[in-house]
Each structure stands twice: as C-alpha cells, then as structure tokens.
Design brief:
alpha/beta; elongated; about 25% helix; F-box domain-containing protein; about 325 residues; LRR_dom_sf
C-alpha cells in the first residue's frame, strides 16, 4: 500500500513495531526518497532502508534488539554512511547476549569520526558491554547534547564515557542522566571533562544501590573562590530524587546560593570576567519525601531576586 502512495509534505515517520505476520510476508524495503522527499525524522525497529543515501534525513530513532545486535558497530557505521546529513542519533538497546557477538566487534581497533552528529540519545537495559563498544568505536566532535537513560542496577560505564568525550574533543552543553546506576564520584569525574555544560538533569534510580545526588556531589558543585568550580558554565540544574536516602537540604541550598549572582552586582561582573556563569534555573523534585517550606525559605528569597526555583515533594510544590 505504501509503495503506491506519495507523501510530499511528510517530515516525520514512525514505523516502530510495524510487522507483517501473514504467511511469512515481510515489510518491503521502501524507497522513502520517492515516497517522502522531505522526510527529516525516521523511527524504526527494523534495519533502516538503504536503497540510496538519505541526504535529507536529520534524525533517526533506532531500536536495537537481538535481530539487529550482531554486529552492532558495523550496523551503526552503515547507518551513518547512508545518512550523511544526520544530526541526531537516538538508540534504544534491548537486552541480548553480548557473548554471542564476534570478539573483534566487541573490541574495535578503529574509531570512526562523524562530525555531523550534535545530539546523542542512548537508552539501555542492563547492557554496559554494548555501551563500551559504542563509546570505544565512534567519535562525535560536534556533539553538544547527550541524553543517557538506563533501567537497570548494573554499574554504568563512566570511564568509557569519559574516554569517549575526551577522544571526541566535543563541547557538550546539555547533559541528561536518567536512571543510571552511577556513583557521585563517577558523576563528578564525568562533569570534570565537560566544563562547557550549561544544562544538567539528573533523574536517579530508586532500585540502585546508591544515588549520585549526595552531599559530596552538591559540595563539589559549590562555587569556592579558592578553587576552580565544577561545571562553571552551569545555568540550569534539574534534580529528580527517587532513591530514598538521607538528603542534605542545607548543602543543596548553600550550593545554589553560591552559584547565584544578583544581576548588575559587582560579584556578578567579577564572576562573569572569570568565566563563571550565574545559575538561572533550579528544579528539585522528590518522589519519596515531603518538603519543609520553611527550610527552603532562602531559595524563595532568591526566586524573588530573579532565580527560577521549583522545589516539590509528595506534599506538592513548596517553592
């Protein structure tokens, strides 16, 4: 049916989980260049069509399962070759047996460099070995936004990600971490190699052994005149706490206060001259505890000065 139709205005196509199960029939390889010459975004659970280079495609969402997992690095290399204008790459990786993959694929010797990729989204399900392969096989020098999602208790391979960022020599300004089982020390190490970050979102995992949103992490984010600050360009911070642990309200408040410079003040001018950005937005949400509005009165005062602050718990928004 699709092969007989034309979509001259179509910009986005989602054919995930699209299957034909009638007497062994399969989804035909469609010539999307002819069907949709203006197509910009493609989401699929099958290997993407490769009849010709897709110069117009900018974003691809790909679900990598057992049928597409072997070998994964050549698969992604093929996709990047076939979509030379691709800017955004989104991967969802379901569980599979990595031991079934060829050893040469799991330990690649050559790193491919792709300068068009500016946004990378990766969602995995307890499979750090796949991430190790990905991070060791590719370089994205133009990367500025990274979204990493996980739904497991497996330790997230922070060292491999740090090597990936360092080897890519990219300037990441937006980093989102959702559900990763990562320690506060590893998170600090990651931020050390991303001094350009201006937006940071951390959504921890309630079933992991620990949360990275600790007192030590918040102390590391605090501006101090005696040392170079972590994430000096940070302007927006969003923390979603789902892991039930002792949360240090006082340290969090002190950290936010240290990064707020009242617009027009001498302190603001001095910090700007040293390359330190003023934080502009702070969001803190708890899914497991109430928030004491009185404790967070100092942030309410900063909100009155111009800082956008949201603090919410099981008892609703308190700031």
């Amino acid at each position: 049916m699709l092969s007989r139709m034309q979509f001259p205005s179509l910009l986005e196509l989602d054919i995930r989980n699209f299957e034909i199960d009638t007497e062994g029939a399969q989804l035909p390889e469609l010539d999307l260049l002819e069907l949709a010459p203006r197509l910009r975004t493609l989401a699929t659970t099958e290997s993407p069509p490769v009849k010709a280079p897709f110069h117009q495609l900018r974003t691809i969402h790909l679900w990598i399962g057992e049928e597409l997992a072997s070998p994964p690095v050549p698969l992604l290399t093929k996709i990047l070759h076939n979509y030379p204008s691709l800017c955004s790459l989104s991967l969802e990786i379901e569980p599979f047996d990595v031991e079934d993959l060829d050893s040469e694929v799991r330990d690649p010797m050559v790193q491919d460099t792709w300068r068009n990729i500016t946004c990378l989204v990766i969602r995995t399900f307890w499979e750090p070995s796949w991430l190790k392969m990905l991070f060791s096989s590719f370089r994205f020098p133009s990367l500025n936004e990274v979204v990493l999602k996980d739904e497991s208790t497996e330790t997230w391979p922070a060292d491999d990600f740090i090597s990936f960022v360092t080897n890519s020599s990219c300037i990441i300004t937006t980093l989102t971490l959702r559900g990763l089982s990562i320690s506060d020390l590893d998170l600090i190490a990651v931020l050390r190699v991303i001094p350009s970050i201006s937006y940071l979102e951390i959504d921890d995992f309630e079933h992991s052994s620990e949360s990275p949103i600790t007192s030590h992490f918040m102390q590391s984010l605090q501006h101090q005149s005696t040392s170079s600050p972590l994430a000096p360009k940070l302007r927006s911070l969003r923390l979603i706490s789902k892991h039930e642990q002792l949360f240090d309200d006082a340290t969090f408040i002190s950290m936010v206060e240290s990064r707020w410079f009242k617009p027009g003040s001498d302190l603001s001018a001095a910090m700007f001259s040293m390359g330190n950005a003023c934080i502009r937005s702070v969001v803190l949400k708890f899914s497991w505890r109430e928030v004491d509005a009185e404790v967070y009165q100092p942030l309410r005062n900063l909100d009155a000065e111009g800082l956008r602050v949201v603090v919410a718990g099981t008892n609703g928004v308190q700031v």
